[in-house]
Protein: Ketoreductase (KR) domain-containing protein
Amino acid sequence: MANLPNQDGLFAYFRRRLLQIPPFAAPTSPSTILLIGANSGIGLAAAKILLSLQGLENLLLTARSTEKSLQTRQHLAHLCPASVNIETFEVDLADCNSISEFIMSLNASSKSGMRHVNTAILNAGVMPDTYELGCGRFELTLQVNYISTALLSLLLLPNLRLGSITSSSPSRLSICSSDGHYFAIPISTLYNSENGILGHLNEPSNFSHRTYPTSKLLGILFGRALSEKLDPAEVLVTIVNPGIARTKLFRDLGWPYRIFMRLFGRNVHAAAQVVVQGALGGSGAVHGGFYSEGRDTKPLSEVFSERGRELQERLWSETLDLLRAEYEGSASAPSQVHTVC
Structure:
């Protein structure tokens, strides 16, 4: 990977779009897969691919409302082999309380009190065109795409570790990123912010077309930091970039962006194949690696700089401090937020 060309900028994006994605080689599925954000777009397309794989026994799907969860299950029913059990759950990543309730529901669905998960694919995301708050005190994009994704990653670790024990092979945690992260707010700006990384991004005056890309950059930094805390023999962490795909995620953008998407966006099925291959790929998967265009490659070059490394460590500390504070005094406070890593 060290000899790969620089991936930053618009020119590199067009160069990547010219790359031939390797043919999809259907992997053998682990027995239980959890897919967050499965009701539309890349998530729904990924669910259809997962149902076609050999070895799958349980497919656990989430959407942000009970109605959407049921619609997803009905939509997939005709594709579901008799040997596969589909379960749907409600989780709204705009609300941290919804996440803890989801974890409790997930575990309550198992007779043992802890549901084992072999692979978790965290795919949910939003891209609003104006500043709005989630259910807490953070801007919606930052809340859903980063804070809640980080929280969910931590809360699922016991389930993933149990999955590793039951299967005698590493479980996998896959965080979906975006090509957009190459166009994030410069790391130097985040590094020099006076009120912290998350505080800076949460300011209404700092909301812009770079908020979504920056939320995805934070996800990469968090995934890399988390991978350094975990034993890959237990839980292997990958960050997957499906590429810019033609989905409803971009529905709120102006017409120049919609034209760009029409001309250069990847079709949803191809993007979903990249996600599935990156999440379930064979023994060659790189712990903490960035998987894009069907191969392990490089994220934004600044990630590897000294300042990028320092920002990653600072973000990790900020994030854990935030999550601990959010759950302080709560009867439902998941202990792993306080004790993980």
